[in-house]
Amino acid sequence: MRIGLVTFFTLLSAACGRSELFEYPEVRQTPDMGASSPDAGRPHVSTGCDALPRFVLGNAEVISTDHLGYNKICGAGVSDGEGGIALPVYQIATISSTTLFLSPAPGTLTQVDADSMIPFGQPSGFMGIDMPTNWIQFKLRAVDHSGALVLDELVSSNPSARSVDPLGGIVVAEGQYGGPPTIVEKYSAQGQPRWSAAVDVDLQLLATDLNGSTLALSVPGEGPVGYWFGPAGEIGPTLAGPTLNLVSDWALRVGGGFFLAIPGDGGVEWTASVSHRDTAVHPAPAWLASRPNTRVFPIFGGAAYAIVPRAGTAPVPCEQTVTIVDADGNVCGQMSLGSPMSTCIPGEVMVGIDGSIIQTGPRDLDDCTSGGSCTCTWRVWRGALE
Asked: Is 162 in contact with 170 (CB distance < 8 Å)?
């Protein structure tokens, strides 16, 4: 891992909410979060929206990269619990990455080259599993806000799944050559082993909830089974459901547990909900099931959710909107993040653990897959939904 000051990256303090590459219109939001806005002539109905804080989404910090070459992908940004930002760029051909680290104090930007670490936000700094080009020695790595290495430890020769713990640390599933058992291990934010357990199936997905319990889902062919592990590694109840081995993504549920998504005709569809250490799968709430191809993030200390669109795979209307709902799914307001064009292949919008909103620029403007130089652009609203 090499750490150095960035020379070909520019940090733009976007006083007008625009970058040197393309202009975004003014951010629009309606209503202010926490403001009551009943329809004209209709009585106000009290919801969880009333308790949410008011805020105005201010100007974004705009971070741009230039002349990176080709066969690269501008990755989704993440934040840690102290306002640090990590912005990865992935090299397709060589399984490597370059990550920009933006410190909590605006104006300090550092470039770090690594094998292929996908950064996960921690209460302080970032963690991830670094997959080397030889596919043999996988390492658990932790870095601070500047990308400086604070942990570099061999953890697995064959990790089949991993999950960040929202309370700090990471959980890794290590498959065995020749088949089960699969070893599930938890590491603290300092890289210390916390617990280890084994299950007699191959695993495809790990998820750790807001209570520190981990759900492990089996691969197709092993039966639709999920296994719960408590915060101390104790093996809990088994979760059963007809589509568990089709799950491709998950989102944290306020109070513990998860929303589960599977691939569908319309893209990624939210189909199921499981509460903390649940033994049965329940249908996803209607407010979420009606919003396919989205990501969901708990915000405001668990009082609400932010719903954002997923990155696109084909040209669509380019404008991206953040929808705020209370814990029961009542819509409290929406914010348009603006768009530099009418149609595009949208990039990801992520909400970090500190409430920061991070928007990756349109893929057809930013990605570098067809040769020549390229540019990646992110816009960051720090702590907007904290």
From this structure: yes
